[in-house]
Design a protein that fits this description.
alpha+beta; Glutamine Phosphoribosylpyrophosphate, subunit 1, domain 1; 4-stranded antiparallel β-sheet; 24% strand; binds aspartic acid
Length: 308
């Protein structure tokens, strides 16, 4: 049996130097949280949920607490979790006032006959299950409120400028993939989305195959970056398909990022694990914070070895 392993990321983008320590420390803590679940006999699914919850609770990242704001100043989050054993998945999109969207996504998978619930319906499920809530003031990071206020000071901002600015900033979405002792893989992703997005906008992070994909026969992959481009190449499933065709996980994530850039001029990053416990990290943004652990070793970084 391959050795269990878990890898997390804290988003692809340009991460200012002064934020590198917080991003790497947050990833390290999340990897430890995920590993605690795995070493306590938990499944890969438990581990990726625990890791992503830790990242959602850390205001450094754009997910849960620390989420960015929509154009109208609200917080709308997307999350997705997938079980590689059964190919079951659960997701929520444009959900508000939920403290840990990843746990709500898991509830969609386990407690409803559905895969994806949006907005108020997802919030109603959270309420029914008594999941912890948080209002926008608690969810938004102060630095994002300041950025948002500056952007709107002189009236509606120019959309092209907003996109250029969003792409130049860290995107900070979070994700995790894991392989457990039983040989099962799982993937989880959670985000506040893209800066200044329209209310109701749903990104890759809520969509199976785009934000994440997991299949025990192959491995698991999670994406981050400019969602509108990631979803057009169904990037996580594409990377899994490359693995199924025989590429190593590292070559597969690199090939998927190359495809993203060549076909849709996209920006983003991927982490992946294959069913043997080998991992891959790739991005075409200047940075992507990551951490992985197999219990014996824990490594943290802010850039993939092969990134350009
Ligand atoms: N992929 C996310 C989205 O487009 C953003 C990110 O990865 O930071 O919603």
């Amino acid at each position: 049996m391959p050795q269990p392993i878990l890898i997390v990321h804290g988003g692809a983008g340009t991460i200012p130097e002064e934020r590198h320590p917080a991003a790497m420390e947050g990833c390290r803590r999340a990897a430890q949280a995920g590993w605690s679940a795995l070493s306590a006999g938990g499944s890969a699914l438990d581990a990726v949920e625990a890791a992503v919850r830790a990242l959602e609770d850390d205001p450094t990242f754009n997910a849960g607490r620390g989420s960015i704001m929509t154009r109208v100043g609200t917080v709308e989050m997307d999350a997705l979790i997938m079980d590689g054993t059964t190919l079951r998945a659960g997701a929520v999109a444009a959900v508000r006032r939920v403290r840990n969207p990843i746990t709500l996504a898991r509830a969609v998978m386990e407690r409803t006959p559905h895969v994806l619930l949006v907005g108020p319906s997802a919030e109603a499920l959270a309420e029914l299950l008594g999941l912890p809530t948080a209002d926008d003031a608690e969810l938004v990071a102060p630095r994002d409120r300041e950025r948002w206020e500056a952007l709107w000071r002189n009236g509606p901002p120019d959309l092209r400028e907003v996109l250029a600015q969003a792409l130049a900033e860290p995107m900070d979405t979070v994700g995790a993939v894991a392989l457990d002792a039983a040989g099962h893989v799982a993937a989880a992703v959670s985000t506040g989305g893209m800066s200044n997005k329209w209310p109701g906008r749903v990104g890759d992070s809520a969509l199976i195959g785009c934000g994440a994909y997991a299949d025990d026969r192959v491995g698991a992959v999670v994406a981050t970056g400019w969602g509108e481009t990631l979803m057009r190449v169904v990037i996580s499933k594409t990377a899994c398909d490359f693995m199924a065709l025989g590429l190593t996980v590292q070559t597969a994530v690199e090939a998927a990022i190359r495809l993203l850039e060549e076909r849709v001029d996209g920006r983003g990053g991927l982490i992946g694990v294959d069913r043997m416990g080998r991992i891959g990290i790739a991005h075409n943004t200047p940075h992507m914070a990551w951490a992985w652990t197999n219990g014996e070793t824990l490594r943290v970084g802010i850039r993939a070895a092969t990134s350009r």
